[in-house]
From TrEMBL:
Belongs to the Maf family. YhdE subfamily. Pfam families: Maf. This is dTTP/UTP pyrophosphatase. It is found in: Cytoplasm. CDD domains: Maf. The lineage of its organism: Bacteria, Pseudomonadati, Pseudomonadota, Gammaproteobacteria, Lysobacterales. It comes from Tahibacter amnicola. The record marks 10, 71, 153 as: Important for substrate specificity. The active site is at 70 (proton acceptor). It catalyses: UTP + H2O = UMP + diphosphate + H(+); dTTP + H2O = dTMP + diphosphate + H(+).
Length: 189
């Protein structure tokens, strides 16, 4: 039985897109970067902690496999998480405007006898954005709840000048890598 340790509607949508059946677990894992922790290590650790917390809730379920994931936007070594408010979203989008940044997604699968993970790093270039465009975008409400204050699957798709990597990973779950990972657990044929 597959469980997703995430409340993200995008992750649920992506798993459904490839025909996977799963149940959702609500886990509460602090997303705090440790001093000096490299971005890739941070993203992997948080994803692992989500999967581990989810597995503790279903450990008694025979053949339970829990998927935990984290996705962060990184520019100049800084991690752009979910914006706290409109001012935070504005600051993020100003910095990302006209620049190439990384989107790091890490996925962990945890079962009673096995743990494995994959990490996918995509590079995304946003077109230059003027203040009015950023303000209109923030007014849609779409930046909130999304790393880097944008959603590639929404209005911000028009801002993506170039993508090298995985579109689904930028949304929050690299599908190719995730299905390969789940095949090691007998979830995907």
């Amino acid at each position: 039985m597959l469980y997703l340790a995430s409340q993200s509607p995008r992750r649920r949508q992506l798993l459904e897109q490839v025909g996977l059946r799963f149940s959702v677990l609500d886990v509460d894992v602090p997303e705090l970067r440790r001093a000096g922790e490299p971005p890739e290590d941070y993203v992997s650790r948080v994803a692992r902690e989500k999967a581990g917390a989810g597995f503790l809730a279903v450990a008694a379920v025979e053949r339970a496999v829990v998927l935990g994931a984290d996705t962060e936007v990184v520019l100049d070594g800084d991690i752009f998480g979910k914006p706290a408010d409109a001012a935070d979203a504005l600051a993020m989008l100003r910095r990302l405007s006209g620049r190439t940044h990384q989107v790091i997604s890490s996925v962990w699968a945890v079962s009673a006898g096995r743990e494995e993970h994959v990490t996918q790093i995509s590079e995304v270039t946003l077109a230059p954005l003027d203040e009015a465009t950023i303000a209109r975008y923030i007014a849609t409400g779409e930046p909130f709840g999304k790393a880097g204050a944008y959603g590639i699957q929404g209005h911000a798709a028009a801002f993506i000048a170039h993508l090298s990597g995985s579109h689904s990973s930028v949304m929050g779950l690299p599908l190719h890598e995730t299905t390969r990972l789940l095949s090691h657990f007998g979830i995907v044929g």
